[in-house]
Write a structure and sequence with these properties.
This protein is mainly α. The chain has two helices and no strands.
Length: about 60
Amino acid sequence: MHFKNSLEKKIFELKSELYEELKEKQFLETDIYLLSQKLDLLILDYQKRYLAKNKIIFE
């Protein structure tokens, strides 16, 4: 798998860890999927606020 940067790689690693932990605790696949989607939204929100705070603009 190819990552754009180290942050993206770390996020993938953490999500994989979380997925395995949830599986061990016998969460349903749909619950894991919904939690994963929620996590993606939180990450996007954080990235957006980080970029705005640091005035990083992509054109």
